[in-house]
Amino acid sequence: MTWLLLLLIPMTAAAAPQLPLSLQQSIVEAHRSLLAAGWHPAPDQQPSPDERHWSAVTLDSLSSCSGTGEGFCRFDYRRDGQTLSVVTVPSRPGEASVGRVTRWW
User: Fold this and answer.
1) Is residue 100 within 8 Å of 55, Cβ to Cβ?
2) What is the pTM of this model?
3) What is the 3-state secondary structure (H, E, C) of 51-99?
């Protein structure tokens, strides 16, 4: 039975679509790549003017930013019923600056 599970694992991984994202990539570059791959902006909520300022971008995928701590911002996308969230940190910590991709799910 274990061998059957081992056979399924590579097929599952191969079936998972590759995302055009990489760590430390600029959110502007990531946004362009995602749009080209068929993803569409789908923010979970409307960001406040302060969150817009902290993100330092006008991308319509911005959902939120934390004004404290690491300064994380979240950008949300949708494609074919799938959702994708991309989290960034400021390129200049402690300042409003274009984010660099730090994780996604």
Assistant:
1) no
2) 0.82
3) HHHHHCCCCCCEEEECCCCCCCEEEEEEECCEEEEEEEEECCCCCCCCE
